[in-house]
Specification:
Elements lengths: L1 E4 L5 E4 L8 H17 L13 H6 L22 E6 L1 E4 L11 E4 L5 H19 L20 E3 H4 L12 E3 L1 E10 L4 E9 L3 H22 L37 H4 L2 E3 L5 E14 L4 E9 L12 H16 L1
Antiparallel strand pairs: 1-2, 1-3, 4-5, 6-10, 7-11, 8-9, 8-11, 11-12
Amino acid sequence: MFEVIEEDGALNWLERTTPGYDVEALLAQLSGYLGDIERTDRWTPAFPEPLDVMENHEAEETGLDERFAALTFHGLRPDDRLTGRYVFMVIGERADGDHESEVDLRSPGLAGPELEGILRLAQMRFTESLSWGDVGALPAEQVDDDFPVDNSTLGQMLAGWGVPRLPADVSFGFAWAALELEDEDGLTTWVERLAGDFDSARLASALLLSIDRLQSLLMSEWDTPDERPRGASLPDDEDDGEDADTEVSPVSHDGPLPVALAQLGCRAVPAGWRIRRGMIYAPGLDREGHSRLYRAYSAAPESGVPAPYVNDYEELGLLRSALRSLLD
């Protein structure tokens, strides 16, 4: 990826590859590099650390040497001038018996945050090129007469369910729910419901924070290796945060849905379907104006679904789906 000065003087970045490049290998290396960044580096620490002159000197990048002289790229545009800043990734041939190839990544003139931003866009571009379908070719959403827009409330839909008690001194104006529906033949599907006058910015914030935390927790437990990268583990829920002593278990059955949430209006469940299980996210504010998140996981009493009702992998997929829908 080369930074160039365009004909009108504007700066821009161009992506160029050698002929016959392997997009799968490039995507794998980009994803691995960015995964290391996610698990370790923070570009905006609370307190800056003093620079180590020796380490910085050793980390200085040198120009490309004769090893790369034989590489050719698809041509740049005639009127573009190079600034001398670039991101250069060369993937070597994998030796017999080796699991990974040697990779040379150089980025002269780029600070960490800028490099991450450029590589994330490249990762998205390669992911798009490898996707199984053309997003633009998807058919327009069809309106199904079997899915009415009748109004209901969370309380009506979840009547008889046991859920956690509402935290004291916290007010709620809206809630998001992911519900698994089941028809008479046992077919199941997930739907989402927005109840009340929802605030898209606050809901997106709650979803983003929950996704980040859940991903880190799952990564810390994945295959339980002997060593984990720094920053890849989280404390248990009971040890998490200064309000841990007052945190309500999201799978407890303290009683029916609290009135503050039960009265929130939402779209009804379609005819012929019943709710089997689900989860509720309700962002709220305490008296001091601090954000609080009420989470509830439960199931219909007759369903026989045991706690925790929604497993972590399902929840991660549902949260990411909801965030994509919200941002779209």
